[in-house]
Structures are given as C-alpha cells and as structure tokens.
Amino acid sequence: MFPLSENALTIRFSNEISDEAHERVQKLTRLLRCEAMEGIIDIVPAFSSVTVYYNPLVLGTYEQASRDISEKVEGMERAASALAGRTVVIPVCYGGEFGPDLLEVAQYHGITEEEVIRLHSAGTYKVYMIGFAPGFAYLGGLPSQLATPRRAVPRLLVPEGSVGIADRQTGVYPLATPGGWQIIGKTPLSLFCAERQPPSLLQAGDVVQFHPMTEKEYRMWKNNGDFCS
Amino acid sequence: MGIFVLDGGFFTTVQDLGRWGVQKDGVPVSGVMDDFASRLANFLVGNEANEAVLEITMLGPTLRFEIGTVVAICGGEFSGKLNDQSVPLWQPFMVQPGDILAIGACRIGYRGYVAVSGGLHVPLLMNSRSTYTKAAIGGFYGRPLQKDDELSLRPAPCLPEWQPSWGIAFSIRQYINSQEKVIRAVEGPDFHTFTKESIEHFFTEVYEVTTQSDRMGYRLRGQKLQRSVDQEIVSEAVTFGTVQVPASGDPIVLMADRQTTGGYPRIAQVLAVDLPILAQARPGDRIRFQPSSWQEAQRLYIQREREMMYSRAIIRQKWREINGANRFKL
C-alpha cells in the first residue's frame, strides 16, 4: 500500500498481471463498494491494484486511512472466494466495411477469414480493467493464433463500436477516436453511454464472449435502437 | 432566462469540483483546474464550493445578463468591464438585467473563474456539471461556450441592494504572480527506477510548459529523464498532479482532464496545494520542482482545507451583515 496523493492510496497485490491478483482486486473492490465506507469518494480497480480516493477530513491522513483500509483487506483475505463476474455477450458483425482489416489479420496468420472469426468468437475474455477512455475495457484471453501487430499507420478515425486486435489484446472502441488497432468487426451495442447507470457496459471482473452476427442482423439491431439500454 | 453569450472567448467551459465515483467506468474526473480560485469565487457570491462556474482561459467571454444577480471573477488577472466600467477581481459585484460583462485578456496567470450567485444551471450528468470536451460530455452540451449560447441560472442565495465593498485580500492572490514557479512534489511510485542524474535534474533544472499543454496534462520541456531499470509498468490509477515520464524522457504533469489510469512510470506527485500555481502557468512559463515529503503535503492539504472553511464562514458572515441590514434573506 502506498499514497498516490493527499487524497488517494493504492493497494497493489502484485507487480505483474495475474489471475490471482485480478481476483483479489475484484474481491476488494466489491467489498469496499458494498460497505460504502464514509469518506471514500471513488474506487479505481486496475490490473493488479485498487486505488481508493478518500476525504482526509473524514478518514484522516494516509497513516490513519491506510490502517482502516488494511483491516478491510485482511477481512477480505479471510472471506470466501470472489463472486464470478457476469458474462456479457457482445454481438459482432465481422468483416466487410465494419471490419476492414479482417483479411489482413487472416493473411498475417495464413488462415481464412472464417477461421479468424471462429477463433475470436470461441474465446472467453476477462475484463481486467476499465481505463484509457470512458468505457474502454482491457480484455485478457486473446488466442495466441490471433495476436497481430498494430497497423503501421494509425487510422485518423475508428468508428465507435469497432472491434480490434493489437498484439495480444482485443477490445472494442467505446467512442470514435483515432487508433492503430486492426479492425475486424463492429458491434451495435453502446459500450459507453453517459446517461446510463452504470455508464460503462463492461465492468472489471466481467467475462466477455463475442457472437458473430450478419450485416442484416446488425442493421436490424441498429434500427431498433440500442441507444442506451 | 440567465446569461446570453455574445462571445465565447478562447476556451470557456462549465466546471464544478469534478465527476467523482465513475472512474471505474473510465470516466475522467475533470472539474476546475484551479480549485483555490474557483472555490473562493463561489463563496464570494454566496454559493457552496461545488457550484458550477465558468472556467475561462487566456481570453474571456462577453456575456449579457438577462437577470440581476451577483458575480465574482477570481483567478488570473483578466481585464473585466461591465458596460464599459472596470470590474474588480476577487470581489463580488452586482449586475442588472441587460448588463454586458466583457472579460478581456489575461495579463498574469492563465485561467479565471466566473461564479454567479446560485450557480450555472446545466444538467447533472453522473452527479457533476463538469465539461469533459474530449468525450463531449457534461457541462454545456459537452463543449466550450460559443456565441449565441444561452445559459440558465439556479436560484440565487444573495441579492443585495448595494454593492459589497469587500473581497479577497491581495496577499492571497500572490500564487499567480511568480515568474519562475516553484512547484513542490513528493516521490512518485516509480521514483526509484529513475537514474540518480535524472532525479537530480528533475529537482534542480528548469522545465518549460510547452504549447502541447491543456486541461488533460502539461507537457514539459527540459533535461530529459531516464530510468535505470527498464521494468514494465502495469497500468494503474493516476491522478491530478501525477508526473509521468514516457519514453521520450519529457515529463508530463497530469491535470484535471487526465485519464483514470496510466502505464507510464511516475516519478513524482505534485502537492495538492501547489496545483493551482501550475493551473495558472501558461505555455512558455518556466517551473522548477522542489522536493517535499508526504508529511508536509498532508499537513499543507489539511491547512488549506481549514482555510477554505474559514473563508467560507467569514464571507457568509459578511453577506449576513448586508442582507440582515436590508432584511434580505440569505
């Protein structure tokens, strides 16, 4: 545990990314959120650490606040294992105009486009962390056969909902931004919606599965309006 | 009915003290850059610290008030004119319906805060009125103000009959003036992974605020900083005032619109009480970091918060004197 600023401290379980550290991060995050300790103003779970923002006028200085939170961590260690995260199925229309790099990814690995789709949608992915941008999930578990380097020249604008691969990572762009990921498809779901509670569709600890959909299904979904549901 | 924008100025956004509680969703905290000036501006017009204010940058907006109210401008030394009459800074002043407030250039400092009695009325989004322009969320339609925008106001707590003659003491505004700004900082989580020379450079050399600096972060230029170990950093939370060093070696100080998490090594953390000094630095300004301790940082933080509560109490007492004499209710 160490101070991050006058009103934040970080509890780090490991210096590496591991399932064990991830599970402890999830357990502590749930515990702190459920207890709604007075004076805690924000909790940020990351790959292998949890950062707690607090009001020093309520919880005291770092020395006092860290003592209170240490007790919670000890209580957590004694508690039963973490609850399994939700499973969120994300429908994806692969290839075509929605996935302009699908062919390139297939050619890079010497397999067919169908094989890329099959591998990508067969995997289960763990949401390690939300960060970088509103609603952006860092997903672990991309099959190594699909690991592909980023594009040499990043695109000026990747549309929101685009599903991409960058090295050993896969993910969905929640908002339209410039980006260098290999784009293999697009989902009609809104990964981030400011008016929704919670605003991010995915939460740390969730398990994600991608499910292929046709372009017709994609259009139907969009026309029926998944605005912020 | 509220405020009609005749000119938006250089970069004017609606901000409060930030959007807390949704960093787990990847939503940046945002909020005012200089919370010292913005909180005092709110107190001066009878508001609580967290009411939405206008954060103005370098060149202020021109506003027409549709209703009478009380306004205060705190922060950098902006020139302000109410119907061609100069208005004081760091002091509440009254406006009448139809009055035009033209805020000009900032002579010293970089950012100012325009507080209006009652606060600006924009929808609460994720429990905050702050604008985060990069994702176009919050504040006034997620963007800076433009000509012809119309802002609503919340009900005003203080509407006196005569102009108050008091304001914030001149000595308290000195933090904006310094030519070479001294910013105190404590060791960050990755401090010891930097070379001895780099640590020495960081705390002795002058760094210049570059033009690639904005509400998200201040990119600095000076002696480059290097690490002695090339240990991979696992992304975790970063905060206002975190000094991170990407591979280029040029430090970046994260500011109000920072991302929630980061993966660059963090050499230092700026003291919360010195963040307003940094927020008032403009591109081209020179800063120097001075080593401090967590003990000092926390002591100064609590002292600052107490001063704020004290200022709020004194200003409320002042308002009670005016309004009591007039049988107005606070």
From TrEMBL, chain B:
<dbReference type="GO" id="GO:0016787">
    <property type="term" value="F:hydrolase activity"/>
</dbReference>
<keyword id="KW-0547">Nucleotide-binding</keyword>
<dbReference type="Pfam" id="PF02626">
    <property type="entry name" value="CT_A_B"/>
</dbReference>
<dbReference type="GO" id="GO:0005524">
    <property type="term" value="F:ATP binding"/>
</dbReference>
<dbReference type="InterPro" id="IPR029000">
    <property type="entry name" value="Cyclophilin-like_dom_sf"/>
</dbReference>
<keyword id="KW-0067">ATP-binding</keyword>
<feature type="domain" description="Carboxyltransferase">
    <location>
        <begin position="24"/>
        <end position="307"/>
    </location>
</feature>
<keyword id="KW-0378">Hydrolase</keyword>
<dbReference type="InterPro" id="IPR052708">
    <property type="entry name" value="PxpC"/>
</dbReference>
<protein>
    <submittedName>
        <fullName>Biotin-dependent carboxyltransferase family protein</fullName>
    </submittedName>
</protein>
<dbReference type="InterPro" id="IPR003778">
    <property type="entry name" value="CT_A_B"/>
</dbReference>
